[in-house]
Design a protein that fits this description.
Blueprint lengths: L6 H4 L10 H11 L3 H5 L5 E4 L14 E12 L8 E7 L2 E7 L4 H7 L5 E7 L1 E3 L2 E5 L3 E3 L10 E4 L8 H14 L9 H7 L4 H9 L12 H27 L10 H9 L6 H15 L5 E6 L5 H14 L3 E5 L3 H17 L4 E4 L5 H13 L4 E4 L13 E7 L6 H10 L5 E6 L5 H8 L3 E5 L9 E7 L3 H13 L3 E5 L7 H18 L4 E4 L5 H13 L4 E4 L12 E7 L6 H8 L9 E7 L5 H12 L3 H12 L7 H4 L13 H17 L8 H10 L3 H9 L1
Parallel strand pairs: 4-7, 10-15, 10-16, 11-13, 11-14, 12-13, 14-15, 17-22, 18-20, 18-21, 19-20, 21-22
Antiparallel strand pairs: 1-9, 2-3, 2-5, 3-4, 5-8, 6-7
Helix pairs in contact: 7-8, 8-23, 8-25, 9-11, 10-11, 11-12, 20-21
Bound molecules: adenosine-5'-diphosphate and magnesium ion.
The site of magnesium ion has 9 residues, from loops.
Length: 694
């Protein structure tokens, strides 16, 4: 349960001054729905109002604060013209300019003969300085209310700077003094302020330095966020690992048989990954390992060998895929190899019904079925294992960290866990992503792969693309044709794909199939099967096929409106071809004019097919906040930490978290209560629960 001290920070935005129901919705879009979100909406810059020149010394464009005497009001003859107020100091005159002025208001705030302190941007008009709509007009007595350094915030429709400033002031007032969770030496070394001071320093800046990324207040807040993230990861991992697993070591009898039957040698990376996995499985600790490898790097085989090890050791193994198509595909790859080794493999998806399903479930419960492949349905309540030793989760960047945790919580707790992912994570992000997992990487692709030629063409040359496709299918080629991603709308995606299907089908009657996310699972299977068998040669698809489909005969990938896809997505799509022994082509068809980022993405695609390089470039082009489409990848999103700027802090935070988990895993030491508060502050409630339930 969240500690009471945090309640004001988790209150809704409507508790802030000036925020009613309508503004609450707007502001929540900008900052997030809670008071603390407003505090974490840090300034993106500062206005310096500390310059106080004399009128004779002002220059065009600068922001200044002037001490002026109000000389006279010049009301305009018509309301189309601006209202002017002439002011001066001992060195010269300046005109204040107001459009659509309220005369009474100006008379009241700028009485003739009085002194005023006025701040705003200087313009020159025929050599005479003027200021249009000054930002501040205050009397000498109120001078203290004029900020010398004024924070600038990212804004959104409906939220003015004034509204936001007021809300932030309210949030700062509501912010409690929190217990210090950071290590004192670390704070002293960096000259870091307390949590509350840090927020005050940034929102109420007293000098220009606070705008810099390396300002102690910013670093402190970034570090808080990173420490919370790494501590939560490490606590979770400890909990999962601490569950005593069991030592599973097979006698290699099945593995040897399968490896012998392969028409190829394992790659060096595959051998090493299998060794790492076998070592983990043989240990008493529960395995929690990620197998990362680019599309086509041969993860499935590694997983199969791990599963056979579990079977040799007398247990069962399960493999869970993100989609029905993939579950089928894994089944079709794995089942024949396993059958040759005398192992029975079952496929259990959400779709199966009635007697057949009951029988399959019964065989699984009795232990007769040794390997099972399926979807989420595998972890439904009616699925019981006799003795599950290993669970393989084929993530393909569909599941996030959270689902992973949920799986191991709901699923059979003692089983070793192997997660497979095709998403190459940029080096800068591995710590935040894999902090909770051991990692095996398949670096090289299997040998003998034919290179993929990547070409880019503008949409105007689509006819050439179609002709090329026509020539290719006459020689028996198989073609994927991926249709534009329509923003936020799978309905429109589908319409685009259906249109393309219709037009290609008139050109190549009977040779074209269609697959998209809104089709029934059976229809998808049928389309895939027809493509696989060669009955159809062109498969028009939405990004459904992004996830792991393997048709070795496919040698052409057409991506329409390539400019709308992210770099990693393009890479994943391209990885669907080049899987067989024939050279392949990827055609990126784009709409002109190309934006700069889209241009760079396409250039990189043509330059390299190294998934890690592409992931790094993706990070660079999109910024860490958006890499790989953070939401679907489950990568943590940081608000105050910027991994470009603060990667050194991430390393320290991870070490710190490691030390905490080693020395005080229950968070019961002197720093413990404060660290719990930190975890709750960043909504790592799950991680705190793990400590308690331990
Ligand atoms: P991933 O799941 O990593 O995308 P797969 O496991 O589907 O890749 O492997 C892609 C293809 O490569 C499969 O057809 C597989 O049989 C083949 N393959 C796997 N390992 C090797 C190897 N060592 N040498 C040659 N081909 C391999
Ligand atoms: Mg083990």
């Amino acid at each position: 349960m969240r500690p009471e001290i945090l309640f004001p920070l988790f209150a809704p935005l409507s508790t802030l001054p000036g925020i009613g129901p309508r503004l609450e919705t707007q502001l929540a879009k900008l900052t997030g729905p809670k008071v603390v979100d407003v505090l974490w909406h840090l300034p993106v810059g500062l206005i310096d109002r500390s310059q106080r020149p004399k009128v004779s010394a002002v220059t065009e464009g600068e922001i200044v604060t002037l001490e002026l005497t109000v000389d006279s009001h010049r009301e305009p003859p018509s309301s189309k013209q601006p209202y002017r107020v002439i002011c001066s100091d001992e060195t010269g005159f300046i005109t204040l300019v107001f459009f659509h002025a309220h005369k009474d208001y100006l008379r009241k705030n700028l009485p003739e003969g009085e002194h005023r302190i006025i701040s705003g941007r200087i313009e020159m008009y025929g050599g005479v300085p003027q200021m249009t709509h000054p930002d501040y007009i205050v009397s000498p007595e109120e001078a203290a209310s004029l900020p010398l350094y004024e924070p600038i915030y990212g804004l959104t429709a409906g939220i003015t700077p004034k509204t936001l400033h007021k809300a932030i002031d309210g949030a700062l007032d509501a912010a409690p003094d929190l217990p210090e969770w950071q290590d004192l030496p670390l704070l002293q070394q960096g000259g870091w302020p307390t949590w509350r001071e840090a927020l005050n320093t940034l929102h109420k800046p007293e000098d220009l330095a606070s705008a810099a990324d390396d300002h102690p207040a910013r670093k402190r807040l970034a570090y808080d966020e990173l420490l919370a993230s790494q501590l939560a990861l490490r606590l979770t991992r400890r909990k999962l690992k601490r569950q005593k697993g069991r030592a599973l070591s097979g006698d290699a009898r099945l593995r040897t048989q399968v490896i012998k039957a392969l028409p190829f040698e394992l790659t060096v990376s595959q051998v090493r990954s299998v060794e790492e996995i076998l070592t983990d499985m043989a240990s008493e600790d529960r395995m929690l390992r990620m197998l990362q490898g680019d599309v086509g790097s041969g993860k499935t085989l590694v997983a199969l060998l791990a599963m056979l090890n579990a079977v040799e050791a007398g247990t069962q193994a399960a493999m869970m895929a993100p989609t029905e198509i993939l579950a089928h595909q894994h089944f079709e790859t794995i089942e024949p190899m396993a059958r040759d080794a005398g192992i029975s493999v079952a496929l259990i998806t959400g779709r199966g019904k009635g007697k057949a399903r009951q029988e399959a479930l019964a065989k699984l419960a009795s232990g007769e079925t040794q390997i099972v492949i399926g979807t989420h349905a595998l972890f439904q309540e009616d699925v019981a294992f006799n003795d599950l030793g290993l669970a393989v989760v084929d993530e393909q960047h569909r599941f996030g960290v959270h689902q992973r945790i949920a799986l191991s919580d709901k699923g059979p707790l003692r089983a070793d866990i192997l997660v497979m992912t095709a998403t190459p994570i940029p080096r800068t992000l591995t710590l935040t992503y894999y902090g909770d997992m051991d990692l095996s990487v398949l670096k090289e692709k299997p040998p003998g792969r034919q290179p993929i030629t990547t070409r880019a063409l503008p949409l105007e040359r689509l006819a050439e693309v179609t002709e090329g496709v026509g020539r290719a299918i006459r020689t028996g080629a198989r073609v994927y044709w991926v249709c534009p991603l329509v923003e936020e709308s799978d309905v429109l995606d589908v319409a685009a794909a259906e249109d393309r299907f219709a037009s290609l089908d008139t050109i190549f009657p009977g040779k074209v199939g269609l697959i998209h996310g809104r089709m029934k699972a059976t229809e998808k299977d049928a389309a895939m099967a027809a493509f696989q068998s060669g009955e159809i040669q062109i498969l028009v698809a939405t990004t459904v096929i992004e996830v792991g489909v393997d048709v070795a005969e496919a040698t052409i990938m057409v991506i329409e409106h390539a400019e709308r896809f992210g770099l990693s997505q393009l890479h994943q799509l391209r990885g669907r071809v080049g899987r067989g022994d024939k050279p392949s082509t990827c055609l990126l068809v784009y709409q002109q004019p190309l934006g700069e980022t889209a241009h760079d993405r396409i250039a990189i695609m043509r330059e390299t097919d190294d998934g890690f390089r592409i992931a790094e470039e993706d990070l660079r082009l999109r910024g860490p906040g958006d890499v790989l489409g953070v939401r679907q990848s489950g990568l943590p999103v940081f608000r105050m930490a910027d991994l470009g700027q603060h990667s050194d802090l991430l390393k320290i935070a991870d070490k710190d978290a490691e030390l905490i988990v080693e020395t005080d895993p229950e968070l019961e030491g002197p720093r413990g209560p404060a660290l719990r508060t930190l975890l709750y502050l960043f909504e790592k409630d799950e991680a705190v629960r793990f400590i308690r339930s331990g």
